[in-house]
Design goal:
- The complex is a heterodimer.
- Chain A is of the alpha/beta class.
- Chain A is built from 20 helices and 22 strands.
- Chain A folds into three domains: 219 residues, Pyruvate-ferredoxin oxidoreductase, PFOR, domain III (Pyruvate-ferredoxin Oxidoreductase, domain 3, 3-Layer(aba) Sandwich), CATH 3.40.920.10; 187 residues, Rossmann fold (3-Layer(aba) Sandwich), CATH 3.40.50; 102 residues, Rossmann fold (3-Layer(aba) Sandwich), CATH 3.40.50.920.
- In chain A, helix 3 links the parallel strand 6 and strand 7.
- Helix content of chain B is 28%, strand content 18%.
- Chain B is built from eleven helices and twelve strands.
- Chain B has an eight-stranded mixed beta sheet with strand order 2-1-3-4-6-5-11-7, with helices on both faces.
- In chain B, a hairpin with a 2-residue loop joins strand 9 and strand 10.
- Classes of the chains: A alpha/beta, B alpha/beta.
- Chains A and B meet through helix 1, strand 9, helix 9, helix 11 and helix 12 of A and strand 1, strand 2, helix 2, helix 4 and helix 10 of B.
């Protein structure tokens, strides 16, 4: 084989998708690739797309697990629409993922897996590598399985274990394709498998074999280079939304001086928050894996009464189970943060797919007049700041806060500029001093209307609270009609006044004009990218992306009043738009919804907006 | 040079008045709950615990109004969830003395799951289970402890369900402390509450409590003047299980079953009678004692089981200490800057 002449093409941004069987290690391959991308100084975002079954039948469409990495030299706000490079480890993953690839994408396939059995299992009639159905793609047929075995043949390793390294062969090819080094990946093997040198060596050899294979194959020409991103000076890391959420709570705990208590029950896609916090006992975190969702929130509420920063994390079905206890938190006016990592619903729905359909539940899903603060994180790294702010608002306003994230934010990752904890806003919970002669359980701060926090163990402050209606100021049980009305109004007003403590709604683009795009929560990256691209083309379009849902920012009405048309885009059947209609019925709203368990794509959004502007 | 000395917190002598709340007690006249409240007010001042360190937690039901009637920190929670709320209180601050007040419906029906799990974890809280075998606050439906066949508002032809025996449930859930008392024996109640408070781990005290309105005399076989001598076995650790007015009846273990015998009959002497060992880790005899019920057997009263075992709180503090001593991460800034990071 002659050594080919390498031709390098510069690109602004690239989307790479790894697809394989659930057991093929695609999630690991994808995250290792993002590490190498990070080390090269690119901006990036990732999106794992995996089935809810742990190991669906091998070789079937149901068992395909994917991981997409979008990286580039400009600000990357999304995990990308369609893949420029698709790695498919078997026929099923090719068949399932081709629709997520550009029509001229580079396809890297394990040609050894395209045997009759696998082809039939995937639902193909003929071998797609040979029937000309892939014309137009840059198809790279790599005998990955065979060459993986070859690479480790003189090591004392079982065939099954050897084949488990074949994802690293694919990674080696991709690293070559983008002119990356193998160092960060090799360092990972040495750390991860340090107790098993044989596994370290096998993975290293297979990775290198993939890299060398790519170097020698004519089909892989040109290769690509993506220059480092122009990010602000600072220290960076890669972070998933769930980890960012957990760390935001740790920062809030440290800054407020309140021990962190998390009461949670495992649920997809929120379990990582519990798993992450349970690792941090060095910060005295009490991460309590409860017997069910209800015990998760009730134990947290007990901890809140006792003076902890109390948190419970869940997903939609779990939020349903917690409803009654959120009511108790509203009635007892105790601080607690409820994280709902939204997934496709109703009922069990689509556990590993993302959606924004718990908004109504968060706003209204309780008995009685039962308002809570509702926040929605806007990106994976923003989960850190949202968790921090949710804690601050809960602690300072003595009220439950529901923080909505979603499966895509939670499992997706992006570049995170590391803040200093000391630079985060101060958190001052209204804790009562011992023997305060003025203490009454339901006496309130005049401005915020929050009651004060009298923590068990403190002298001179013994008191009882509970779910029965309370008399204003004294907190005694009361069925008095006028008192009930007063208390309902006070609890409502307390949450409304939070609007004085949150930022005004920002507009991206001109603050008046033809078309205002309205969106909220996890869709920020896609909306921003689509709107900015249209703005670059001179289109009259602006974006108002909401993070504060209840209460809404004080200037919301003013923002809306300056646009001719408003279109509300969300990954549900129109919940935020209904909420806006309820709050500001004076405006006319159009809506754009997607309910497929998938994020918006920049291309579809751009197309929609362009057609609206051309109407 | 300063003299080194251990600071012992001075706890002022407390009395019943320190724990009486200013709220009107709204239980029915003649309700067994009054006696329980009175016993608790006697026990709390004598435990050597600061009055600010008590937290009383309840769920929903007649008994669950209890926190309002004790001048301590307290939470009146939601139905069935007292065990979960109390768990959060205790884990958040292990220094507190946490008391959970619950009824047979609250604890064993809607709260059954939380109950067995708090018992399994051996979290150091005291659970006082008011068992009147009926739903009182909702006015007379059968509960998980209502005897099979009992006619109630929701079982006009008699229940068709097998009831729970709280003691068996506690022991089956790996419980370390179970005691049973009646609401008509305040002295025993006070003694048992003391023991429950001092036990390290989850203490469950079942109080056979009479609801004068919806299940009046439900425990009469055990508590009535005429029958109680023959139907109550007062357990004392290390002493033979004798009962009856003349203390001439006893319990023996024959093969794998308990049996009632009479001293002097068939050559039975006191040394044949079972000696109560509440510290026995083996659950066999404790479980059989918990099951005993009239008319065949006397009901076992007093502390049936009190075994030493690591508590959840202790285990948690131990691993937190280890983490603090071994983790290189001393602050959240350290954490944020750990692992793969890069400078731009």
């Amino acid at each position: 084989m002659t050594h080919k002449k390498n031709h390098v093409v510069e690109l602004d941004d690239v989307v790479v998708r790894f697809a394989g069987d659930s057991g093929d290690g695609m999630q690991l391959t994808g995250s290792l690739f993002s590490d190498s991308v990070a080390f090269a100084g690119n901006d990036f975002a990732t999106f794992p797309d995996y089935p809810s079954e742990i190991r669906a039948p091998q070789g079937t469409i149901a068992g395909v697990s994917g991981f997409q990495v979008h990286f580039g030299q400009n600000n990357i706000h999304t995990s990308g629409d369609l893949a420029d490079v698709l790695v498919a480890m078997n026929p099923a993953s090719l068949r399932a993922s081709l629709k997520w690839a550009e029509k001229d994408a580079t396809l890297i396939v394990d040609s050894d897996s395209f045997i009759e059995k696998g082809i039939i299992k995937a639902g193909y009639d003929t071998n797609p590598l040979e029937d000309n159905s892939l014309v137009g793609y840059n198809l790279i047929k790599a005998p990955i399985s065979r060459l993986t075995k070859e690479a480790v043949k003189d090591l004392d390793i079982e065939l099954k274990a050897a084949l488990r390294c074949k994802n690293m062969f694919a990674l080696g090819i991709v690293l070559y394709l983008f002119n990356r080094k193998l160092d960060s990946t090799n360092a990972f093997f040495e750390e991860k498998f340090k107790s098993n040198p044989l596994i370290v060596e096998s993975n290293k050899r297979v990775l290198k074999a993939g890299f060398i294979f790519a170097e020698n194959v004519e089909a892989i020409n040109p290769t690509f280079r993506v220059q480092p991103a122009k990010l602000k000076k600072g220290t960076y890391r890669n972070i998933t939304g769930n980890r960012a959420t957990a760390w935001g709570f740790l920062a809030a705990s440290e800054r407020s001086g309140r021990e962190l208590f998390l009461g949670s029950y495992p649920i997809t896609p929120a379990s990582e928050i519990l798993q992450e916090l349970t690792k941090h006992k060095q910060f005295s975190v009490k991460a309590f894996q409860a017997e069910d969702e209800i015990a998760g929130i009730c134990s947290s509420l007990g901890a809140s009464f006792t003076g902890s920063l109390a948190v419970t994390s869940t997903s939609g079905p779990g939020l349903s189970l917690k409803s009654e206890a959120i009511g108790l938190a509203v009635m007892t006016e105790l601080p607690i943060v409820i994280v709902d990592v939204q997934r496709g619903g109703p009922s069990t729905g689509m556990p590993t797919k993302s959606e924004q359909s718990d908004l109504f539940q968060a706003l209204f899903g309780r008995n009685g007049e039962c308002p809570t603060i509702v926040l929605a994180a806007i990106s994976s790294s923003d989960c850190f700041y949202s968790a921090y702010e949710a804690s601050k608002l809960a602690l300072e306003h003595m009220t439950p806060v529901i923080l909505l994230t979603d499966g895509a934010l939670a499992n997706g990752s992006e570049v995170f500029k590391i803040p200093k904890v000391a630079d985060l806003p101060v958190i001052n919970p209204p804790i009562v001093e011992p023997n305060d002669p003025d203490f009454k359980p339901y006496r309130r701060d005049e401005k915020k209307l929050s009651r004060y926090w009298a923590i068990p163990g403190t002298e001179g402050l013994r008191h009882r609270i509970g779910g029965l209606e309370k008399e204003n100021i004294t907190g005694n049980v009361s069925n008095d009609p006028l008192n009930h009305q007063l208390m309902v109004k006070l609890r409502d007003d307390k949450v409304k006044r939070v609007a004085n403590y949150i930022p005004e709604q920002k507009i991206i683009g001109k603050d008046s004009g033809e078309l205002l795009i309205v969106s909220w929560g996890g869709t920020y990256g896609v909306m921003l990218t689509a709107v900015e691209r249209l703005q670059e083309k001179g289109k009259d379009i602006s974006l108002a992306h909401f993070k504060y849902i209840n209460p809404l920012p004080k200037n919301t009405k003013e923002v809306f009043s300056k646009f001719k048309r408003i279109i509300v885009c969300e990954l549900n059947n129109g919940q935020f738009v209904s909420y806006l209609k309820m709050n500001f019925p004076e405006f006319k709203y159009e809506q754009y919804n997607k309910i497929q368990g998938l994020p918006f794509m920049v291309s579809e959004i751009k197309e929609k907006f362009s057609s609206l502007l051309n109407e | 040079m300063e003299e080194s000395q251990i600071k012992v917190p001075v706890i002022p002598e407390l009395t019943k008045e320190d724990f009486v709340s200013d709220q009107m007690v709204k239980w029915c006249p003649g309700c067994g709950d009054h006696a329980i409240l009175s016993s608790m007010e006697k026990v709390f001042p004598k435990l050597g615990i600061r009055k600010e360190d008590f937290v009383v937690v309840s769920g929903i039901g007649c008994s669950s109004r209890f926190p309002y009637y004790m001048n301590t920190y307290g939470i009146h929670g939601i139905h069935g969830r007292a065990a979960a709320i109390a768990s959060g209180v205790k884990i958040a601050n292990p220094e507190l003395s946490v008391w959970m007040i619950t009824g047979d419906g609250d604890c064993l029906a809607i709260g059954g799951n939380h109950f067995i799990h708090v018992v399994r974890r051996n979290l150091d809280i005291n659970i006082i289970l008011f068992n009147n075998k009926i739903y009182g606050l909702t006015k007379g439906q059968f509960s998980p402890t209502t005897p099979k066949g009992a006619k109630t508002k929701t079982s006009p032809l008699g229940t068709i369900e097998i009831p729970f025996n709280p003691g068996e449930l506690v022991i089956g859930a790996q419980g370390t402390f179970f005691a049973r008392v009646t609401d008509s024996n305040p002295k025993m109640m006070v003694d048992v509450l003391f023991e429950a408070a001092r036990h390290n781990g989850t203490s469950v005290v079942e109080i056979l409590q009479n609801c004068v309105i919806f299940s009046n005399n439900i425990h009469a076989l055990i508590t009535s003047k005429e029958t109680k001598e023959n139907n109550q076995l007062h357990l004392k650790h290390g002493e033979p299980m004798l009962f009856g007015k003349q203390k001439d009846k006893g319990i023996i273990l024959r093969r794998t079953n308990l049996e009632v015998v009479k001293l002097g009959e068939n050559g039975i002497t006191e040394k044949d009678i079972l000696i109560h060992n509440k510290f026995n880790h083996d659950t066999g005899v404790h479980n059989m004692l918990a099951r005993m019920a009239p008319p065949e057997f006397p009901a076992a009263l007093g502390v049936i089981r009190a075994v030493e075992q690591e508590t959840y709180g202790q285990a948690l503090m131990d691993i937190i200490d280890i983490a603090k001593n071994t983790s290189p991460l001393k602050s959240v800034d350290d954490l944020l800057n750990s692992g793969n990071i890069w400078e731009i």
